[in-house]
Amino acid sequence: MNEKQMMKNPILEPLETNLMNLKWIANRLDILGRELSKIKGNEKEWFGITIQEYMIIQLDCFIETRKNLLENLQNIGKHALDEALKPFWEYLIKFEKPIKELRDSYIAHVQNNDRPFSQHVFEIHDKYQFPYGFDDTIFLGGCVCLYKDYIFKNLPDHVSKTEQKYRSIRPTRLDYDLIPPSKALSFLEPLKVKVAENLKKLNLRY
Q1: In this structure, are residues 57 and 65 in contact, taking their beta carbons and an 8 Å threshold?
Q2: Which of 72, 33, 74 is nearest to 55 (CA)?
Q3: Domain locations in the chain?
Q4: Which of 3, 64, 87, 184 is positioned for an S-S bond with 168, CB 3.0–4.6 A?
Q5: 117: which residues sit within 8 A by CB, 6+ positions away?
Q6: What are phi and psi of 108, to 5 degrees?
Q7: What per-residue string of b and e applies to 152-177 under the rule 16 or more CB within 10 Å gives b?
Q8: How far is residue 98's CA from residue 140's CA, in Å, rounded to a whole number?
């Protein structure tokens, strides 16, 4: 099927949607894992934690995407493929609950709706004995990347069709950039001046 024919039925099928999701998740984890592996010592600890937190979000996305993908594989008679890849996903499933709790309570939602801090983040680690070192997170991300590689390697026709169809429906990127390149900090300065004036009128610190 060529791209012109695909335009007649541009909506991605469930399998195609989950293959694209898996690709994006793995790509993000690969990039983030490479950056996290460069961090040594404490001088960039918060930078590392920030990367690690976004990786946790992606690990949770993988867990949900794999659940959907299992049904898709069953429908095309490829359920055994996922089972063969169990060494890559079993650690993710083992730690599904702490990954979900960390994502929902601390990382993605940041205590929405004034929810109290009922548990400290370390209490979640302890409750599930969840390994949370940088290398632990890099390892889990690597498992996802390898899972994606073998899924794609064993479904080449589905992957090719998915990528062609996605290209055919992707709209042209429009330019909505607010700030010219390399000018972000200079655009903040006049805002700081305005805020200082507002605070000065209220006799507040600025």
Answers
A1: no
A2: 33
A3: 3-178
A4: 3
A5: 111
A6: -85, -40
A7: beebeebbebbeebbebeeeeeeeee
A8: 13
pLDDT in tens, 90-109: 999 999 999 998 888 777 66
Q: Which residue has the tokens 């960390």?
A: 102
The pLDDT tens digits of the residues spanning 4-45 come to 444 445 689 999 999 999 999 999 999 999 999 988 776 678
Structure tokens at 55: 């990786």
HSE-up of residue 136 (Cα within 13 Å, Cβ side): 13
Residue 103, token pair as written in the block: 């994502």
Residues 71-94: tens digit of each pLDDT: 999 999 999 999 999 999 999 999
Rounded to whole angstroms, the Cα distance separating 100 from 182 reads 37
Structure tokens at 191: 């805002």
Query: What is the spatial distance between Cα 148 and Cα 188, in angstroms, rounded to a whole number?
Result: 41
Contacts by 127-132 with C-beta closer than 8 Å and gap 24+? 127/98, 128/95, 128/97, 128/98, 130/95, 130/98, 130/99, 130/102, 131/95, 132/52
Categorise residue 88: left if φ over 0, alpha if ψ from -120 to 50, beta otherwise: alpha
Decide if 32 contacts 83 (C-beta within 8 A).
no
